[in-house]
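I hope you will forgive my troubling you with a question about protein structure. The record follows directly beneath this note:
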Amino acid sequence: MTAVTTPDAPTVGADAPTVVPRRRRNYRRLLGPALTRIGALVLVLGVWTVVTAAGLVDPLYLPSPHAVWDAFVRANSRHQIAAGVDRTVIGEQNYYLWEHLLASLQRIAAGVGLAIVAGPLIGFVMGMLTPVRLVTEPILNFLRSLPPLGYIGLLIVWFGIGDMSKIWLLFLAAFPPIAVATLSGVTGVKQDYLHAARSLGAGRAQVISRVVLPATLPEVIGGIRIATAFAWTTVVAAELNNGIPGIGGLAYIAGTQLNTPLTIACIIVIGCAALVLDSVIKFLGAKAVPWKGKV
């Protein structure tokens, strides 16, 4: 069928009737998961509201969503230090909640940033040089098996209770996953790719830059994603001592003061920030390695 064109009507072709259904399918594909997640969130909030309104759980252990929201608003605004007192204070612990979050993100950026520089470099050297791998792999596995809280006391002795010890703790939490992922990527390159490149006349440097690095990059990005999530879960441990400002430190102090609404508000903020970080890394990773899953 050929396209028919009239002066007063747009071009109509054989594929035109399928455009609208195709767009509808795309909208449904996007809206379906979103509506499912929103529905799950509404269900959780509804059950939470019913349980707390019925008094089934003591508010000390599970405050209502309204109480948590009030704590969140209070932590992001100026308010009276106490009822009937004219003195006002900023947020919680003299910082707004977003300032606590920003301080934690800066520590994460420093610690994970160092790991992103050192992890791929060391993992790549380990993967390319067998003698180096034989010596360093047990050390890497030893570091990977230690819980972050095992470092904190020693790091405080070495670097004090300031940000330096926290950054090193986050670095040690993020470094092993990135190095292991890089090592796995290098050693997992198919030999057929290497032989094919050499048979076409590629030298060692070209094999590394044109074959090994592109094949390893998806594993590196996956390791960065895991490492960032692991480091973010370590932020509370990193901020146990002198962690103000810091969202982890605020959550810890709120818990010790039995301020459960603020503790839950901090937990929700930490979780939402983790989801955003993961989504950003996933998006950037998809842009950096568009060939992943296609070859």
The longest helix spans residues 16-53. The first strand starts at residue 4 and ends at 6. Residues 1-5 have pLDDT under 50 and may be disordered.
